[in-house]
Amino acid sequence: METRRSPWERFLSVFAPVQAGEGGSVLLLTLNVFLLLTAYYIIKPVREALILSEWGAEAKIYTSAGQAALLLLVVPLYSRLAGAVDRRRLISYVLFFFMGCLGVFYLLAQLGVPLGIPFYLWVGIFNVMVIAQFWSFANDIYTSEQGKRLFAIVGFGASSGAVLGGLVTVWLIEPVGVFQLLLLSAGLLGGSLLLTWVVDKAAEDKAAQDAAAEDTSAQEKTEKARPEPKPSGRSGFSLVFANRYLLLIAVMMVLANLVNTTGEYILGSRVKAAAEASVPPIEAGLHGEAAASAEAARLALVRVETGKFYSSFFNVVNVVGLLMQLFLVSRIVRWVGVRWAILVLPVVAFGGYILMGLFPLLAVTRWVKTAENSTDYSLQNTVRNMLFLPTTREEKYQAKQAIDSFFWRAGDMLAGLLVLVGTTTLQLSTRGFASVNVVLAAVWIVVAVAIGRRFRTLTS
Fold first, then answer.
1. Is 409 within 8 Å of 257 (Cβ atoms)?
2. What is the overall mean pLDDT for the chain?
3. What structural domains does the chain harbor?
4. Among 193, 257, 331, 435, which residue has the least CB neighbours within 10 Å?
5. What is the pLDDT of residues 90-109, one digit of tens each?
6. Which one, of 444, 252, 419, lies nearest residue 350 by Cα?
């Protein structure tokens, strides 16, 4: 006899087909990723404020490129750890490590140590590893059939966490200061870890019950009882280069992040110029300690103005992304399918950077990036994960990890090279960089069309 759904499960069914007994795990996983994204978006404006106020937009783009090089070292180390411990200890070790790092950064800030570049590098690694690790955990908790139905709700937790993180920063950055937000973020990571333990224990108990039940299918037993993916004899990189479909996805990821990161440079340049223009210059005639003190005060004001802009910017982006995730994503996929849904973001970017080049204003840049980022965080993120549905399990774990980490950050690295050449050799203005992005977005559209055709073939 089928178990009746709870009121919560009937309510959640408005957004996704939740079955009886699934409401608890869905809510806990949604809350888990909600805490992770809240923690990230609390420190994201801190990252922007530090790197822009201490070094500028060029250093920001170059530091983004350095994250790709670091991942060449970090990803193999993470893989070794994943192969040596079970998933609960793996997640615990990683989250404890990042919580400790936040404490160290806070102490260094109190000592007056410049943190712009190291903190920017660290946040890039933190974002990739922690979020990817969560989705790996969610894939282990659910079968493939459950994931297709329930990940839309879990994704809503990510979007709403991003919204709250931006709001918290807006509310607290002036009254408590920039660096106290690091401690708040560490506390949220601790809450996420506790939820992971609860969900993992419940999943183990449920798997044992299902394995013992006579009416559980063999496939369901296998998927629900799997503790960890088996180690692969082939690396994720070799899997990507051996499969044309996966290689196209990797190329799309590089192009997407190349366009996005170059756009962030354009936005950062215009934000810094506006922030510096809004702060009164140092009084003439000051020398020595008086001049240094005045410069430090002015730098602090520029940092606050920059942080306030990015807090508001991220907040709007996340609210729009949240509404898209809740009301549009599932409908767009259902109406046009994955094949056409994967084209939405590159088309938005193509049109947006044409506007950004024609109208070099901060307001235009802000709203173009709002449209691009909100679509990226909602529709594109959901559809991108759907692209791996027709792949093998080995490709889902090994190749997807390589694509989501190294190939994603390789776009940052190429963006750094583009900015270096564009600012030193080609002497490009922000309008010039917008024109380059128009060309890159056009190539991105072509690659997305090829991926959509291959996806249709594999799923049919």
1. yes
2. 82
3. 21-459 (1.20.1250.20)
4. 331
5. 889 989 999 999 999 999 98
6. 444
- pLDDT one-digit tens code per residue, 3-54: 678 887 888 777 767 787 778 888 999 999 999 999 998 888 788 778 877 7
Return the sign of the alpha-carbon dihedral for residues 47, 52, 57, 60: negative
For tokens 């299918």, name the residue: 217
Return contacts of 415-419, CB within 8 angstroms, 24+ apart.
415/61, 415/64, 415/65, 415/257, 415/258, 415/261, 415/262, 415/265, 416/61, 416/62, 416/63, 416/64, 416/65, 416/66, 416/261, 417/65, 418/258, 418/262, 419/58, 419/61, 419/62, 419/262, 419/265
Distance CA 350, CA 347 (A): 5
- Identity of residue 149: R
Buried b (16+ CB within 10 A) or exposed e, 324-334: bbbeebbebbe
Answer for the pair 201, 124: CB distance below 8 angstroms, yes or no.
no
**Interatomic CA distance for residues 123 and 189, integer angstroms:** 14
Phi-psi category of residue 339: left, alpha or beta, with phi > 0 → left and psi -120 to 50 → alpha: alpha
Question: From CA 199, how far away is CA 192, in angstroms rounded?
Answer: 11
- Which of the two residues, 80 and 420, has the higher pLDDT score? 420
